[in-house]
């Protein structure tokens, strides 16, 4: 059975990931990652600040990003992590393919960091 994400919803959980987590940057988005040993379900949250655009634009990109994560995300690698995907302004101009490319880029960097960090 394929692992599934749990939604990261509480503000204090978001703040903990921002403060203590590691981040991976792409011009269109930022992926924040916080390892939580002993937990066996990965949690994910999505964020888009008001500076980016109006609510319609932010929600459209957020919906596309959620679909990218649902279709192409690999929760097996992040089973003991909290993740936040923050949308940046260039994502507003991008299409679904561009958002997928940005997410997979950040995800690959995060996975390689997790692999190198777990061996140490």
From TrEMBL:
Q: Which Gene3D superfamilies match?
A: 3.30.230.10
Q: One Pfam match, by short name?
A: Ribonuclease_P
Presence of the UniProt keyword Iron in the record: no
- State if Magnesium is listed as a keyword: no
The protein's matches in PROSITE patterns, at most eight in alphabetical order, are given as: RIBONUCLEASE_P (PS00648)
Quote the InterPro entries the UniProt record gives: Ribosomal_Su5_D2-typ_SF (IPR020568), Ribsml_uS5_D2-typ_fold_subgr (IPR014721), RNase_P (IPR000100), RNase_P_CS (IPR020539)
| Enzyme Commission number(s) of this protein | 3.1.26.5
Q: Which UniProt keywords apply?
A: Endonuclease, Hydrolase, Nuclease, RNA-binding, tRNA processing
Stretch forming the signal peptide: none
Question: SUPFAM superfamilies given for it?
Answer: Ribosomal protein S5 domain 2-like (SSF54211)
Q: Which GO terms describe its molecular function?
A: 3'-tRNA processing endoribonuclease activity; ribonuclease P activity; tRNA binding
Q: Supply one GO CC term from the record.
A: ribonuclease P complex
Q: What does this protein do?
A: RNaseP catalyzes the removal of the 5'-leader sequence from pre-tRNA to produce the mature 5'-terminus. It can also cleave other RNA substrates such as 4.5S RNA. The protein component plays an auxiliary but essential role in vivo by binding to the 5'-leader sequence and broadening the substrate specificity of the ribozyme.
What is this protein's name?
A: Ribonuclease P protein component
